[in-house]
Write a structure and sequence with these properties.
single chain; 2 helices; mainly alpha; 70% helix; elongated; 56 residues
Length: 56
């Protein structure tokens, strides 16, 4: 029985996560830049309560 190992390209495996991080970061900045301040505050407040972190 023989085992073949496929070697992933070093460039392909390191550039994809970097591109994903950039796209995700730009998406977050774009969304938060267009939302009302009270909506962003309420969303963060709800997440804190959902995770069990007391905030008041």
């Amino acid at each position: 029985m023989t085992t073949k190992t496929l070697k992933a390209s070093a460039v392909g495996s390191s550039i994809l996560p970097a591109i994903f991080a950039v796209v995700l970061g730009l998406g977050i900045i774009t969304v938060t830049g267009h939302v009302q301040a009270s909506g962003l505050h309420d969303a963060a407040h709800d997440v804190r309560h959902a995770t069990g972190f007391p905030c008041h």
